[in-house]
Amino acid sequence: MESVAESRTADIRPAAGSHRHLLIGLITVLLCLGIQMVLSASFSSRPGDREAIFLGRHLMWLTVSIAAAWLASRIRAEQLRAWCPVAFWLLLLLLVAVLTPGIGSRINGAQRWLRFAGFSLQPSELGRIILPMLAVDRLLKQQEQGRAGIRGIPQILLPLLLALPLVAAEPDLGATVFLTIGYLLALFFGGWPIRCFLVCCTALLPGTGLLLLLKPYQLKRISGFLETWQDISSAPWQVRQSLYSLGTGGLEGTGVGGGWQKLSYLPEANTDFVFAVIGEELGLLGTLTVCLVWLFVYRCGISVLNATSQRSFRWITGTTLLTQLALQAMANIAVVTALVPPKGVPHPFISYGGTNLLVSLVAIGLILGPAEQHTSSTDIQSNR
Questions:
Q1: Which helix (H) or strand (E) holds 114?
Q2: Each residue of 78-119: pLDDT tens digit?
């Protein structure tokens, strides 16, 4: 008579297979929409081949990213855990290189990129994958050794405390916040004791005084955001143009390529504010469809991950990466619709941007990777 574990595994595999195909299909829909929107949003009022250049670069990054995602989907959890420390030290090396004069590239007052062969790489984006994986690896090792508690907090948080100052020095407040959230999500899904979170929050509470160190342009963004809903004329320029775009689109939109705000009015139309272009050209129906696709992406991703043990490295890491992607999409939509202060947050799979596209697709590849099978009835009980 087959065991409960074998029966459950047999039931999960066919369902997981269908959800894998559906997840790949949904991501393909977002990628195809991204190609169209990058082409459309890259047009400007100035004549030239600007849109063709952006589209060409986007397609090259997309090709590289798909290949990287396929490779990531073939890597077993044991190999990922073995590579985590090496990947982390490589990340720190790249973050230091970004801040090194003559190596890092400065754009609009921020030094966040490394340029080579005509391409730009943003190392802080790589931290969205590397840091959560390292957090899970360290947490699982402590749990295996029976040391997952308050005494283990310094060892758990050390990688984050080493990386964050380098990212904040670029400066990149948004990436600093997102990396912190991703790291803590990994610990949460990994079952880190609540008392450890409370100790960390208590210790970091004095750090809220760092808000006083915000640069003038950051304070201006926040004050402008607070005034947006009282008087739109006092809203930051990019937020105002974003809301105009959404309002112009109405229910059905102006049609693909028919938007006007992208023509030198809407800043960063093909990157951080591409969702506003979707709203103008595809209307409310288009934006709601994107939101619905994301809802199904998250649901299918969770179903795929549930084919493996919730106590495994694969499940914890995959759930963290999937949640990060969903939160990033939500943050982008919130910025575009003026629900939060403006901050450069690209929309996963849709926005133009090589490193973000690469990291997002690699995250999907890791989610689709080889499952770690249930090994005991205890694990199965924990999944319920």
A1: strand 110-116
A2: 999 999 999 999 999 999 999 888 888 877 667 788 887 767
- Concatenating the DSSP letter of every residue in 273-334 gives THHHHHHHHHHHHHHHHHHHHHHHHHHHHHHHHTTS-TTSHHHHHHHHHHHHHHHHHHHHHH
96 C-beta neighbours (distance < 10 Å), count: 13
pTM for the full predicted model = 0.87
> How many Å apart are CA 361 and CA 70, to the nearest integer?
9
pLDDT in tens, 237-279: 788 888 889 999 999 989 888 888 887 788 888 888 999 999 9
- Cβ atoms of 126 and 355 within 8 Å: the answer is yes
Residues 172-210: pLDDT tens digits? 878 888 999 999 999 999 999 998 988 887 766 665 455
Q: Are 167 and 95 in contact (CB under 8 A)?
A: yes
Distances (CA, A) of 139 to 45, 164, 213: 53, 19, 33
Name the CA dihedral angle for 111, 181, 360, 245, rounded to a multiple of 10 degrees.
-80
